[in-house]
Amino acid sequence: MTNAEIKAIAHRVLQSSLASRGLDRIEVRVESDDVDEPKLFVDASMKPEAGSLGGGVTSGALHALSTALLEAGEMRFPYLRLRYPDEDVADAGASRG
């Protein structure tokens, strides 16, 4: 699947589960890991007024996204990260490992 197709699915799925909780925008990118396997990353940027979401909301959004992408033919697992405006960018990159 193309990034545009993945982003369209991610937007549809995450809008339904995160829009009322402060979703601002979605970014999709593919990066290679240490053995050159492509990994799919989906960043959901939250609005400044969005509070931290509980694990149930986050895992539910990830499950819905993963299921929708798999049903559309995307075999890579989506690594979903919620990004907050006050997040330290240097720490966020390091946590991806």
Q: Catalogue the unreliable spans.
A: 90-97
Tally the helices: 3
Mean pLDDT, as a whole number? Answer: 85
**Mind describing the biggest β-sheet?**
3 strands, mixed
Number of strands: 3
Spatially, the strands of the biggest sheet line up as 1-2-3
Q: β content, as a range? A: 25-35%
The termini sit apart by 25 Å
Write the H/E string, N to C. Answer: HEEHEH
- Percent helix range: 40-55%
Radius of gyration: 13 Å
Q: Specify the structural class.
A: alpha+beta
Morphology call: globular
Can you put this structure into words, describing what you see?
The protein is an alpha+beta fold and 97 residues long. It has helices at 3-18, 55-71, 89-95; strands spanning 23-32, 38-46, 78-83. A three-stranded mixed beta sheet has the order 1-2-3, with helices on one face. Helix 2 links the parallel strand 2 and strand 3 (78-83). Helix 1 runs antiparallel to helix 2 (55-71).
